[in-house]
TrEMBL record:
Name the UniProt record assigns to this protein: ascorbate ferrireductase (transmembrane)
Record-level GO cellular component terms: membrane
Keyword Transport belongs to the record: yes
Enzyme Commission number(s) of this protein: 7.2.1.3
Transmembrane segments: 31-50, 56-79, 99-119, 131-150, 170-191, 203-227
Membrane topology: Multi-pass membrane protein
Keywords of this entry: Electron transport, Heme, Iron, Membrane, Metal-binding, Transmembrane, Transmembrane helix, Transport
Domain of life assignment: Eukaryota
Broad enzyme group: translocase
Lineage: Eukaryota, Metazoa, Ecdysozoa, Arthropoda, Hexapoda
InterPro entries: CYB561D1/2, Cyt_b561/ferric_Rdtase_TM
Main location class: membrane
Cytochrome b561 domain segment(s): 21-228
Length: 235
């Protein structure tokens, strides 16, 4: 009996140790993505302030901060291997996620509003960067009331025509689409006339690669969660 207990203990320790390399790798990638995001934020904001151009500088700064790091951090909040978020309850995570997303969306709205008066051919909103940015903003704005339904589902449950899991899936889809299209818009921004004038080809290419890789990694938890939600919807 003692022998069996000892073998079970060794097996358990071996199983735990077997996950250690994976945990270290994911932890490293999480913070490597954060360092990359921080680098892109500093790069974009430094160029915007160094070459200050009134309203356009604030468009760059506010939208950059809205998508990265705020929107990126709101997505990473639910990763199972995040040390700081693992200390929170699920309810606390939802609350903090909602606050971050709302703040990020507000910054993006403010950043976009300074270019809305250029809605005419040949100007900002007629570029790939402007069009994708506007589409992203629409998805993000729609996702917020759906998120509120999820948070206060007990109060509004009698009025909901579908199961809660449907709203979670819809919120996740809207959030992922808004975030991904927003990152696409940011990538297009690196090749707008303004950025091209003030930067070098090498710096823009590096910013593009880092933005894509870091953003893709931040999405891994959200995509996995969406897969489980879709499976639950049709089960």
């Amino acid at each position: 009996m003692a022998q069996k207990s000892f073998e079970d203990s060794v097996r358990a320790e071996t199983s735990i140790f077997g996950h250690f390399p994976t945990n270290v790798l994911r932890f490293s990638l999480n913070y490597l993505a954060r360092f990359g995001i921080a680098g892109v934020v500093v790069y974009s904001c430094w160029i915007a302030f160094y070459n200050y151009n009134y309203w356009f500088t604030w468009h760059v700064v506010l939208c950059t901060f809205g998508y990265i790091p705020l929107m990126a951090e709101s997505v990473m909040l639910f990763l199972g291997d995040e040390l700081w978020s693992r200390q929170m309850t699920r309810t606390a995570k939802y609350t903090i996620h909602g606050i971050i997303v709302s703040l990020a969306t507000a910054l993006i709205i403010c950043g976009d509003s300074v270019v809305f008066h250029y809605i005419e051919p040949g100007h900002h909103l007629y570029t790939a960067h402007g069009i994708t940015g506007l589409i992203s903003l629409i998805f993000l704005v729609i996702s917020i009331p759906v998120g509120l339904v999820i948070k206060y589902h007990r109060e509004v449950n009698p009025y909901l025509p579908f199961r809660l899991i449907w709203y979670k899936a819809i919120h996740n889809i809207l959030g992922i689409l808004g975030y991904v299209i927003g990152i696409v818009s940011l990538c297009y921004a690196f090749y707008t006339n303004w950025f091209i004038y003030y930067t070098t080809y090498e710096s823009r290419l590096l910013a593009l690669v880092v933005t894509i890789l870091a953003s893709l990694w931040t999405l891994n938890g959200a995509v996995l969660s969406l897969a489980h939600q879709i499976k639950s919807v049709f089960s």
